[in-house]
Amino acid sequence: MHLLAVLFCALATLLSATTAVGYQLIDEQSYGFPIHNPFQATIAGSPVELQPQLIGNEQIKQKDYQLRLRPEREQSLPSNFWPVKTLHYRLAKQKKPAPLIFIIAGTGARYDSDKAEYLKKLFYGAGMHVVQISSPTSYDFMAAASHYATPGYSPLDAQELYYVMQTIARKHKNLPVTDWFLTGYSLGGLHAAFISEIDQQQQFFNFKRTLLLNPPVNLYTSVNNLDQMANVELPELYEGHDFYQDVFDKLARYFEKRGHFNFDQAILADFQNSPERFTDAEMAMLIGTMFRFTATDINFTTDLINRRGLIIPTGTRITDGTSLTPYFEIALLCDFSCYIREQLLPFWQNVFQAGELEDLIQQTSLYAVSEHLRTNKNISVMHNQDDFILGAGDLTFLEQVFQDRLILYPYGGHLGNLDYVKNADDILEFFHD
Q: Which residues does UniProt call coiled coil (predicted)?
């Protein structure tokens, strides 16, 4: 059976899931999100006319700051890594006392990614101070903030994020904060769950509300799903024809007919109604490939910082004039699953005297903090039934653990409906409840 068929079987299973007592399943008929294909929703996002009205950047009092957390890297990293030798973050301040919300970015994303920027505008417009923080899987966090620079072990990633958050809070101790909030999207949602447990123990922030947006449940399942999407079979391509060339050819023919090039969300919807439309397999592969590039960044950066010799030979001197292309080509051969096997698992076993892969999977997933999530009524999760990062049993886990604190939307793929007006209203309602 082709992977695409397997994916759609999984989606069908998710869509037919029965409603557990208490959790909020948004009715398909009343939910107006118009894109019912999970891959297209993930790529396109919400149509502009169905997005909330947001405050403009010119109306936001904001500034990028930096923290010098790993001064030893200033000498050990090549000089052309100077932009990431300090950790940057963004703070948007209100003019009066207000709640402050931390936003944790998703897989490989920096603090200033599009989704973090969208959430900043949403929360700032609702009267909150906002702090945006890069993901521990981003090259800047790995280089400038992480002690081990080997992301993927959620408890350690959360501890490093929590330290960064504490450092930011102390640096801006005169900022009048009335309450502390926390959110994260995708992998950042998983990290937010672990951070919440740490804070419950240390009580530095005492978060009043924590919201997880489309988090993975079993991290290993999610990365395997994404790895497989990057390797979808495309039988319609003839031998020797390149996938990306086929995609570009389709776009070229489409825009030649239109007479101009302008590829935005509205155009994608029109493109998908044209004879040149992307197939589901092509869209799945596009999404998987983007995540594959993220895995490449992680593989390369962690090998460079730790001098493991898996990608860059031991003893190789990297200078401003060194071409990194050969090393990226090697790193590109190793997907997320490969990274876990070759770098994360050996690191985890060595540093923590830990067990086998099955133990790592358990400790890096929401299972590890399930009791905290079950009993802390200030934590909620929003997810989509057709999100392809979920695996068998993941929705049941969310239903049982969160109950009425789970809002489940019928469509949206992976974060494709994050900027839909209904979702925006639900997000703000949770923090204002």
A: none
Q: What is the DSSP letter of 85?
A: S
User: Is the torsion defined by CA of 360, 365, 367, 371 positive or negative?
Assistant: positive
CB of 215 closer than 8 Å to CB of 193: yes
Q: What distance in Å separates the CA atoms of residue 135 and residue 151, rounded to the nearest whole number? A: 9
**pLDDT, tens digit, for every residue of 6-56?**
444 444 444 434 343 457 888 888 999 999 999 989 988 999 999 999 999
Q: Where are the domains of the chain?
A: 9-222+361-432, 226-352
Contacts of 8 (CB under 8 A, 6+ apart): 280
DSSP for 375-410, written as a single string: H-TTEEEEEETT-TT--TTHHHHHHHHHGGGEEEES
Q: Tell me if 215 sits within 8 A of 189, measured CB to CB.
A: yes
In whole angstroms, give the CA distance from residue 227 to residue 392: 17
Q: Helices then strands (H, E): number in the chain?
A: 18, 9
How far is Cα 381 from Cα 221, in angstroms, rounded to an integer?
19
Return the C-alpha torsion angle 256, 261, 263, 266, nearest 10.
-80
Q: Tell me if 390 sits within 8 A of 23, measured CB to CB.
A: no
Q: Say what the pTM is.
A: 0.87
Decide: 38 and 12 in contact? Cβ < 8 Å.
no
Selected from 3.40.190.150, 3.40.50.1240, 3.40.50.1820, 3.60.15.10, the CATH number assigned to the domain covering 9-222+361-432 reads 3.40.50.1820
Collect all residues with Cβ–Cβ distance below 8 Å to 402 and sequence separation of at least 6: 23, 373, 374, 379, 380, 381
The token pair that represents 205 in the structure block? 């922030």
CB 212 within 8 A of CB 380: yes
- What span, in angstroms and rounded, lies between the C-alpha atoms of 97 and 208? 16
What are the C-alpha distances in Å from 222 to residues 228, 258, 387?
10, 38, 10
* Ranges of H-type helices in 314-356: 325-332, 336-339, 345-352
Distances (CA, A) of 235 to 231, 238, 243, 272: 12, 7, 11, 20
Residue 47 in contact with residue 34, Cβ under 8 Å? yes
